[in-house]
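Entry 12.
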Amino acid sequence: MTKKTSCILVITNYHVILFSEGKDLTRKQPKDYHLYDIKQLINKQDFILAIIFQRGKTKTKLKLKTENLEVLLTVIRRLKQCQNSDHCSAELELMIKSTQALESSTPDVKELPATLDTFMDQYRGWCSYYESTPNVAMTAWITRMFAEGNREIDLHRDLQASEFSDTTFDMLPLFNALQHDRYFSALTVQDLKKEVLVKALAELVLHNSHLKKLSFRKCSSEAFHHVFLSLSLNKRSAVQLLDVSENAPVQQVNNIAGGLHGAVPTRTHTPKSSQLYDRTQAASAAI
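Predicted 3D structure (tokens):
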């Protein structure tokens, strides 16, 4: 039988924190959960809400009794929308008994604005998820791009600048922040070989619906396979041009794309030093 205790619940932009009440407040460490790990909200009984967190294969259940059920649902759903956007709103599973609570807690805004504040909220959220410190130089770089109206992230070019280094620039929070971004239209990456970064890029391509151009420099064959697969699964992808310059021979890239049974456009235009996959042209040619 689970012991019921009185507690204080605090929800921030990125965390759900549970403090013990009374004299245990200062004696016990609070329980800290990350908002991005919330996968289910379950309400089967009046005033009872179960929050299911999952990171990897580990699941945790937090069961709360509250008279402010609608308020709690509204706060969590609005914050989760900032993480997932309308594109992936179904990733938060809802099992809510109260129709009124379900309807009143539904976020009004369907798409997040393409602003600097929105992007930086995403970036800081993913930094907190990976327990890393937001990169000051990267923050200034992103701020400058918004100020200049620059919508093309070029890590191949910008990582050569002295303000960045392998030890201070962590691409994981950046890739995750780009999953539901609506501002940037092009992304160029280089030397993508680490498995964790390859998977993060694949998730980016799987979820993003506004990038129109992807460019790769000196990336592994495994990276191409993951990216092509994600492109084939993302029905809302806006990618029209895939540039695979300075990579594997064109035949090897063709073989990877062909292995996906034609799910990825493979019409190839090959300038002197470039291999381009034009999604729009390939789709027209197939009609």
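Annotation: Residues 146 and 255 are 38 Å apart (CA to CA). DSSP finds ten helices and 13 strands in the chain.
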